[in-house]
Amino acid sequence: MDSVIGESEVQQYANPVLESAYFISKNSKDVFIPQDSIQEAANTIYSNMKKLKYSISVWKQHELHPKVANEDAINWIFLVDLLNFSFWSDLEKEKGSNIQERFSIYHKDKIYTGYWSLCAAINRAIDEGIQITNPSVYASSENLSDDKIKYIFRSHTSEGIPLLQERINCMREAGKILVEKFDGSFINCIKQSNNSAMKLLKIITDNFECFRDECEFLGRKVQLYKRAQILIADIWACFEGHNYGSFNDIDDITMFADYRVPQALFHLGALSYSQNLHNILNSFTLLPNGSQLEIEIRGCSIWSVELIKRLIQQKIKQDNTLDLIPNSNAIILDFYIWDFANENKLNFKVDIHRTRSIFY
Ligand SMILES: Nc1nc2c(c(CN[C@H]3C=C[C@H](O)[C@@H]3O)cn2[C@@H]2O[C@H](COP(=O)(O)O)[C@@H](O)[C@H]2O)c(=O)[nH]1
């Protein structure tokens, strides 16, 4: 068996996710970070972000995101990122097939799919007077029955929301933990973190099993923590780095290893796949959660964005124009790439990887 690279060179990163991503990228067999095109990818991303003046303030501009940074927003963000996973459709067996029948939410005269369908369903429930974001409500079926949750996520089409029962289980588990251990509010987790994103990451993954996005890769535990990290990032972005969003080590948060950003990284030339993996993705073959191919895609995506971040930070140092992007940490880069992917995904040459998982 090939020697496992990086085992001895234990990287001293503050974030265990970055350490895992480094290890995965050094031992990946079907996913690569092309050294010859990642600089061009960084240039493209940097110039587009400058043109858009892309910054932390974009987060609240999204129509379905909270507009006021307060306790209600924290409860909303916690619930959204508790359920922020697996929106891709089983109906799509080949490119573009049946997409009109995929799960979607009708809200205020608009139809939403993907991540936005989750936000729309929650906002619709709030408009209907359901206290859906209150942890003591979704913690127990006495306060909010399974049938009521099913009603909240009722689809505009024949396909229902993927993993509905798993989503209900997450709500019960996390709601109970917030009520029993954190006096009913995620704000108390934030207070315990003493303005450290890394401490908050540990509080989340130690206490909430459904955020514990870990698996084994070449005999070693790797931590990817996609929803735990985006939960912290969304609070930081909503509060624009102030108040409950003030973390002195926020730049240690990595890219969020989902299924959409890797697709964009491939399109931009910041990720490449073996022919075998290329064929698997374009034939819509399922990849089991925890499989080597899935972990290579997720881990290399995190490392690719880390390298892009370093390249862009070098460019900022040499850039003497005035229209610099105000912030270029992995969160802002990730948010930009995800928004770019959602606007261009129908033109991408390679499809997403299809893994059913509660982790992303
Ligand atoms: N890496 C990363 N993954 C993200 C997001 C978001 C939403 N973030 C919003 C908030 C601020 C930003 O500006 C975005 O507007 C969702 N996801 C993941 O994508 C998948 C859904 O994709 P689709 O089926 O196409 O909607 C699913 O795994 C979901 O967990 C992100 O930002 N980064």
Automatic annotation (TrEMBL):
GO terms for molecular function: hydrolase activity. It is an enzyme of class 3 (hydrolase). The keyword Hydrolase applies. GO terms for biological process: tRNA modification. It catalyses: queuosine 5'-phosphate + H2O = queuine + D-ribose 5-phosphate. The keyword Metal-binding does not apply. Keywords: Hydrolase. Signal peptide: none annotated. Its EC number is 3.2.2.-. Pfam families: Q_salvage. InterPro entries: Q_salvage. Belongs to the QNG1 protein family. Catalyzes the hydrolysis of queuosine 5'-phosphate, releasing the nucleobase queuine (q). Is required for salvage of queuine from exogenous queuosine (Q) that is imported and then converted to queuosine 5'-phosphate intracellularly. PANTHER family: QUEUOSINE 5'-PHOSPHATE N-GLYCOSYLASE_HYDROLASE, QUEUOSINE 5'-PHOSPHATE N-GLYCOSYLASE_HYDROLASE-RELATED. This is Queuosine 5'-phosphate N-glycosylase/hydrolase.
